[in-house]
Amino acid sequence: KLNFSLFFFLLLFLTACLNIPTPEQRFHTAENLAVNMNKKIYHTKYFDIFSYQKISGNCKDIHVYIEGDGLSWVTSTTISSNPTPINPLALKLATKDDNKCVIYLARPCQYINSTNCNYKYWTSARFAPEVIKTYMRVLNKIKSEYQNNKFTLFGFSGGGTVATILAAKRDDINLLVTISGNLDIQKWCELHHISKLKYSLNPADFTKSLQNVKQFHLIGGQDYNTGEKVFFSFYNKFSNRSMIKYKIYPNFTHSYGWYEKWNEILKEINNGNN
């Protein structure tokens, strides 16, 4: 058997060979993006969650951006040794949001080492109950710190999965917005012919609890990762869709197009939510 230390040494070697930025380089990318935001780490029973924040004045409705899955896999058969994203799109979008209270939340084990970091938490258990409980506690900590009444949740890709499950479990979500969200992980696994995320919760199982939550889902027409088929598998499970809005952007991919048009998209979301 290959011992654990040798396994991760080989992963690091493979990462270097593939010219993938190191975790330190990926952190430096985030630091350059978040020059006008403050760093904070939220400690919970399960994980520490890395955060960037822009807070000015009293916060009644905090915009919370939850990052995608990051670098989960180095290749289609090789698990990454560190899930810190190469292209932190949720952070990029957060930096363009003019709301006076904006908080970016990374996913477990991104940017920092946390007690329970194990590769299962960026593979089969990426949406495990303990992951969701972690974000529930983080939102409670934020609420206690800033005395806000509501959250508007923005989730990119797997961050959209987390945000959607949170919205199903809380009563303080003003609006749920997903960008290329993985909203039915069972359908997603079927489409990509991959093993089920057997330790993860599925947003599509929470549609009854989401009936009265205002939602706006953004889908890339050229998204071959979590595109229209995944979204409509989720959407079609609702008996009442009156609270759900969605828009398909024909030329957008999973991660391309959103940052460049984010200010326009935010205006559209705000106009649609008034």
Helix amount: 25-40%
SSE topology string:
HHEEEEEHEHEHEHEHEH
**Termini Cα gap:** 59 Å
Radius of gyration: 18 Å
Largest sheet descriptor: 8 strands, mixed
Query: Runs with pLDDT <50, length 5+?
Result: none
Structural class: alpha/beta
In the sheet with the most strands, the strands line up as 1-2-6-3-7-8-9-10
Shape: globular
Q: What is the overall number of helices?
A: 8
Work out the number of β strands: 10
Strand content: 15-25%
Overall average residue pLDDT: 93
Write the layout of secondary structure elements.
Layout: H1 4-17, H2 23-33, E1 38-43, E2 48-55, E3 61-66, E4 73-75, E5 78-79, H3 89-95, E6 101-105, H4 129-146, E7 150-156, H5 158-169, E8 173-179, H6 185-192, E9 215-220, H7 228-235, E10 244-249, H8 258-273
Parallel strand pairs: 3-6, 3-7, 7-8, 8-9, 9-10
Antiparallel strand pairs: 1-2, 2-6, 4-5
What is the compact description of this entry?
By secondary structure, the protein is of the alpha/beta class. It has helices spanning 4-17, 23-33, 89-95, 129-146, 158-169, 185-192, 228-235, 258-273, and strands spanning 38-43, 48-55, 61-66, 73-75, 78-79, 101-105, 150-156, 173-179, 215-220, 244-249.
